[in-house]
Design a protein that fits this description.
The protein is mainly alpha-helical. The chain has one domain: 3 helical TM bundles of succinate and fumarate reductases, CATH 1.20.1300. Helix content is about 85%, strand content about 0%. It is built from 4 helices and no strands. It is elongated, with a radius of gyration of 15 Å. The model has no long low-confidence stretch (mean pLDDT about 85).
Length: about 100
């Protein structure tokens, strides 16, 4: 039986949407100093990494849907492009946060 890739992508999409809806409003209300202090610990770095990377995967899936709605029917190319962008963004986020 082949492993379905859709379940993994939908899981990232759902988790990213939930995190974006719940955590981003809290982060927007905080001052830079408090976020910076939070990001100095490994727990803070891991939390920020999860929030940012899951939001990237959520937005990548949304963009894929938007391209389809606008009539771009080469879904394989669009999927590769948006998910590659989310992967690169996730890697850059990890590099930036864990080098601080």
């Amino acid at each position: 039986m082949a492993i379905a890739k859709k379940a993994f992508v939908w899981g990232l999409f759902a988790a990213g949407g939930t995190v974006a809806a719940i955590v981003f409003p809290v982060l927007e209300g905080l001052q830079f100093g408090s976020i910076h202090a939070f990001a100095q610990s490994w727990v803070g770095k891991s939390g920020l990494f999860l929030v940012l990377s899951l939001s990237l995967w959520h937005s990548a899936h949304r963009l894929r849907t938007v391209f389809h709605d606008f009539g771009v029917r080469s879904d394989a190319l669009v999927a590769k492009a948006v998910y590659l962008a989310a992967l690169v963004g996730t890697l850059i986020t990890a590099l930036f946060l864990f080098k601080m």
